[in-house]
Design brief:
The complex is a heterodimer. By secondary structure, chain A is mainly α. Chain A is built from 15 helices and no strands. Chain B is mostly helical. Chain B has a single domain, classed as ABC transporter involved in vitamin B12 uptake, BtuC (Orthogonal Bundle), CATH 1.10.3470.10. The chains are: A mainly alpha, B mainly alpha.
Chain lengths: 359, 303
């Protein structure tokens, strides 16, 4: 019981530690931490508009956080959620303008489906390279992030550019394919509900299905999983494709609900921030939702902070980095369910082997 | 044309080579450091900021080394002493460096993002050699950091392959338990490797701002640290191989300038993506981890 409580408190302590470090950094920069905190909170929760802005910023973080959590459970270090999100957005932005004649529900399904598919291809490619060509997925996913960014840049300057040619942006997607702001004038929309539903599906899939078990076993001990006859290559490609699909959904939803067109800067680095989200959530898909809200609030608040206090919004990168480090450090020192995955320590080979045998 | 391409290839290979030689030392000790991108970025910023403030390129280079070492010390503490997952810790280091350099850049040079420039490091022409046709400019008329980078190749090769220290380092990367049992001190060896890599990553970053761009923009490292990780793999964890791979990637990056000037029909984004496309393609063809240190990336906890 006490161990459980301690485990539950760890993410809170990680965030607290990261924020405390940020306060010290602010003081060093000559800004008042308290004033900044007030502006930050005001920008994130100060009014209904600010709060829905926080929700809107949290939504892509949920999708990317789920992508990272699923892949990490298989010890597949997918640093490429950003590129997979961009691939999804690109597909959505390319298809969107053509959906004019379609019924609303169908158009929504098509645009989100296209985004998921593109993300799955982008992630699956890294999975295939790992499974078949033995290419370290860390490097391939990072490279694919850069390639996706250039692909997007080319698309909005070239084939997908809006007709007037004045801005590097694509044409607007058809009205039928837009996830409406059903609660105008706020930016609250159905995308968040979709994200939460996906989190529940991922939770069930990871912890209640045979495939989820196999993926987790793969993460704990790749060699033992191969020994017990699991289809390692198929699991690797499948998990990376699934991970990419989740991030791709995020890109498509961002286009369908918020931007309605493509810009070069469609992602401010959500795929990287998502690593902090997934770790603070302790790789639990359901935990990704509150963790994403927290980081969404930081993002939203940091914009207000930049305006009011002249402190760069990039300070949130520092908070993200410290949150990751503190979470890693906690789990290394305290042990726990995924110590073997993210921390050091003795190999759990016998356990994973026994688990796999019993299955 | 060809002469300019060769000079540019060497110039683009240099920061990759500096960073990759450091990463090579670290990986032979059994650690994979994704945070190398952050160390380069920190070095690039510290180098130009101090050179701008003091007017001295040498002071900038020293500051860049200090920044690279400081960033790697944070990573070393987290990855070695806390023994956490190295990939995830490295990603955090990259975010940390991006955040710290971004905040300081805006703080020191105003939210306007006004560029601050420094006088570039001068090229040092090596007498008549610099006047050789075709290769003279590329090989014998470059800033000091270029000569240093290439001079380090045999030095690192000797250190890893022939020296007593290199043998200990390799033991830490192949069989850390055995190395510790022999009293070699795995933690100490990995710390030394990471600090040395911090020096080299800082130098690589300094090269970007002090010798190449003469200014700093946010995210100037542009994934070069990640490409350096690929350089180590393609170079088969061997200093000579790393040098060859760095030259190949440097050539690919330099190619974009030539092609951009020559073939205007192709989108410029294709050239910008070329180094990353090449990395994926080469790794897919080269594949395999047979030559990788056995304990690479595995956190080691002293029993």
């Amino acid at each position: 019981m006490r161990r459980r409580l301690a485990a539950a408190l760890r993410p809170a302590a990680a965030i607290g530690g990261a924020l405390a470090a940020m306060a010290i950094a602010l003081a060093l920069l000559g800004a008042s931490p308290l004033a900044v905190a007030a502006d930050l909170a005001d920008g994130a929760f100060g009014n209904w508009i600010a709060f829905t802005d926080t929700l809107a910023r949290a939504t892509p973080l949920v999708f990317c956080g789920l992508a990272v959590a699923v892949a990490f459970h298989g010890a597949l270090w997918n640093i490429g959620a950003d590129g997979q999100l961009v691939a999804g957005a690109l597909a959505a932005g390319a298809l969107g303008p053509a959906l004019g004649g379609a019924p609303h529900a169908l158009a929504i399904a098509a645009i989100i489906g296209a985004g998921g598919l593109a993300g799955a291809l982008w992630g699956g490619l890294a999975g295939w390279l790992r499974a078949r060509r033995n290419v370290n997925e860390v490097i391939s996913t990072i490279m694919l992030n850069f390639i996706a960014a250039q692909l997007l840049s080319w698309a909005v300057h070239g084939p997908l550019m809006e007709p007037s040619g004045a801005f590097p942006a694509s044409r607007k997607i058809a009205a039928a394919a837009r996830l409406h702001l059903y609660f105008a004038p706020t930016r609250l929309n159905l995308a968040m509900l979709f994200a939460v539903a996906l989190a529940a599906v991922c939770e069930l899939g990871l912890f209640r299905t045979a495939a989820g078990f196999e993926l987790r076993a793969l993460g704990r001990n790749r060699r033992a999983s191969a020994f017990f006859g699991m289809p390692i290559a198929r699991l690797t490609v499948g998990a990376m494709a699934l991970s990419g699909m989740l991030a791709g959904f995020g890109g498509a939803v961002q286009v369908a609900a918020i931007t309605h067109r493509l810009y070069e800067t469609i992602s401010p680095g959500w795929g990287y921030e998502a690593i902090a989200v997934a770790l603070v959530a302790r790789l639990s898909p359901l935990g990704v939702v509150p963790a994403a809200l927290l980081f969404g609030a930081l993002d939203s608040g940091s914009q207000a902070m930049q305006r009011a206090d002249g402190v760069s919004a990039q300070l949130v990168y520092v908070v993200q980095a410290l949150a990751i480090i503190v979470m890693l450090a906690f789990d290394a020192s305290a042990g726990g369910g995924w110590r073997e995955l993210l921390g050091g320590g003795a190999s759990d080979a016998p356990d994973a082997a026994a688990e796999a045998r019993d299955a | 044309m060809l002469e300019a391409f060769l000079a540019s290839a060497i110039a683009m290979a240099t920061p990759l080579l500096l960073a990759a030689l450091g990463e090579l030392i670290v990986e032979r000790a059994g650690v994979i450091n994704i945070g190398i991108e952050g160390a380069m970025l920190a070095g690039a910023f510290a180098g130009v900021a101090v050179a701008h403030a003091t007017g001295g390129a040498l002071a900038g280079v020293a500051a860049a080394i200090g920044a690279g070492v400081a960033i790697n010390a944070v990573f070393a503490f987290v990855a070695i002493n806390l023994a956490v997952n190295q990939v995830v810790a490295g990603t955090a280091i990259d975010l940390l460096a991006a955040g710290v350099t971004g905040v300081l850049y805006q703080r020191v040079y105003g939210a306007t993002g006004r560029a601050f420039t420094v006088a570039p490091m001068r090229s040092i022409a090596l007498g008549p050699l610099a006047r050789l046709p075709l290769i003279g400019r590329a090989l014998f008329d470059q800033p000091a950091l270029v000569y240093l980078a290439f001079a380090l190749v045999p030095a690192v090769a000797w250190m890893i392959g022939r020296s007593r220290f290199g043998l200990s380092l390799r033991a830490a990367g192949e069989r850390p338990e055995a190395a510790d049992a022999l009293g070699l001190g795995v933690y100490r060896l990995r710390w030394i490797a990471l600090l040395a890599s911090g020096v080299l990553s800082g130098l690589g970053g300094a090269y970007l701002t002090l010798a190449y761009a003469d200014t700093f923009v946010e995210g100037i490292s542009a994934g070069r640290g990640y490409v350096a990780l690929a350089v180590v793999i393609v170079g088969r964890w061997n200093a000579w191989g790393v040098a060859a791979a760095a030259l190949m990637f440097g050539g690919a990056i330099a190619l974009q300038f030539v092609l951009q000037a020559a073939a205007t029909a192709l989108p410029y984004q294709l050239f910008l993506a070329l180094p990353y496309l090449l990395t994926v393609a080469v790794l897919a063809l080269a594949g395999g981890r047979a030559d990788a240190p056995s304990a690479l990336g595995e956190p080691y906890v002293r029993p």
